[in-house]
Amino acid sequence: MSFFPSALDELVEKFASLPGVGMKSAQRLAFHILDLPEEEARAFAAAIVKARETVHTCKICQNLTDADECAVCRSQTREAGVICVVASPKDVAAIERAHEYNGRYHVLHGVISPLNHIGPDDIRVRELVDRVAAGGVSEVIMAMNPDTEGETTAKYISRLLKPFGVKVTRLAYGIPVGASLEFADDATLMRALEGRQEI
């Protein structure tokens, strides 16, 4: 038996359905929404509806945008011949925060994961192959997470792109900045040694 009105229970359930939000956090968020002035609560709801109605994928790179092409694809200053392949739009945001990359992107919207029944046809691999086949691409950077699914996806795509003669690279893996060697696991140390660079 619930102590709260059904509308509040429903709001809590909706928040709890979000990734990373537990029941206690969902209750806190729901109570916060109820404490907002009505105008702010309506603005919050309107922002959700507006984002859902207007945000879609870029016709070139599959990143999120509210236009036909995203800001990166429209930019005349970005290097068009280099494509960084990422699993999700969140990864684009992470790479952009570093202010070091000046190429274009391709967002797969997932990775190959047989255990979760996600194959190559379930993510945006075909669109990437079409972009490379159209010409003008000199390098494709695989920027997937260094886990089994990320590695599988990167290797699968690199095999598909091999006939086009483009250079396929991956992000270097290794010891994080500020970390201690004694706490690094064997796989991380192995990758760090493989990816060593001259200084």
Helix-strand layout with pairing:
Blueprint: H1 6-16, H2 23-35, H3 38-54, E1 56-57, E2 64-65, H4 71-74, E3 79-86, H5 89-97, E4 103-107, H6 125-133, E5 139-142, H7 148-161, E6 167-170, H8 186-194
Parallel strand pairs: 3-4, 3-5, 5-6
Antiparallel strand pairs: 1-2
Helix pairs in contact: 1-2
Quick structural overview:
The protein is α/β, with parallel strands linked by helices.
Question: What can you see in these coordinates?
Answer:
- The protein is of the alpha/beta class and 199 residues long.
- It folds into two domains: 49 residues, RecR Domain 1 (Helicase, Ruva Protein, domain 3), CATH 1.10.8.420; 97 residues, Dna Topoisomerase Vi A Subunit, Chain: A, domain 2 (3-Layer(aba) Sandwich).
- The protein is 43% helix and 13% strand.
- It has eight helices and six strands.
- Strand 1 and strand 2 form a beta hairpin.
- Helix 1 crosses helix 2.
- The chain is globular and about 60 Å long.
- The model has no long low-confidence stretch (mean pLDDT 91).
Features:
199 residues, alpha/beta, Helicase, Ruva Protein, domain 3, Dna Topoisomerase Vi A Subunit, Chain: A, domain 2, 2 domains, four-stranded parallel beta sheet, two-stranded antiparallel ribbon, 6 strands, 43% helix
Question: What CATH first level of the largest domain would be assigned?
Answer: Alpha Beta
Q: How many β-strand stretches? A: 6
| Proper CATH architecture of the largest domain | 3-Layer(aba) Sandwich
Average predicted local confidence, pLDDT: 91
Name the poorly predicted regions. Answer: none
Q: Helix coverage percent of residues?
A: 40-55%
Main sheet, how many strands, which sense, barrel? 4 strands, parallel
Number of helices: 8
Distance between the termini: 66 Å
CATH topology descriptor of the largest domain: Dna Topoisomerase Vi A Subunit, Chain: A, domain 2
Lateral arrangement of strands in the main beta sheet = 4-3-5-6
Radius of gyration: 21 Å
Strand-residue fraction? 5-15%
Number of domains: 2
